[in-house]
Amino acid sequence: MPRDYFLIKKPLLTEKSTALNTLGKYTFVVEPEATKNEIRKAVKELYKVDVLNVNILNTQAKKRRFRNLISRKGGYKKAIVTLKAGQKINPT
Known about the structure:
Number of helices: 3
CATH topology: Alpha-Beta Plaits
Strand order of the largest sheet: 1-2-6-3
Strand content: 35-45%
CATH architecture: 2-Layer Sandwich
Number of domains: 1
CATH superfamily: RRM (RNA recognition motif) domain
Shape: elongated
Structural class: alpha+beta
Number of strands: 6
Helix content: 25-40%
Radius of gyration: 15 Å
Order of helices and strands: HEHEHEEEE
Oligomer: single chain
C-alpha cells in the first residue's frame, strides 16, 4: 500500500472546519512529517479531486492536570486543503 494512504490520519470534523467546507476548504489531521506536496498528492489520489492550495498548522501539546499528576494532551498537525471550484468531497 502506498505511503499516501498513511499520511492522512482522519478528517477533522469541528464546527469551524464544517463551516469551511462551504468555501471548498477541508481539514485533515495528518502525520507530523508530512509536507504540503505530499498532502496535495495524497488528497488528489484518495478523493480524485484537484487541489489548489494546502495550508499546514502544527498544534501544540497542552498540559492537563488531574490531582497531583500533570500530563500532556498530545499535539497534532492539521492541513487545510482548498479544492478547485465546484468540487466536493465527503470527509466522513
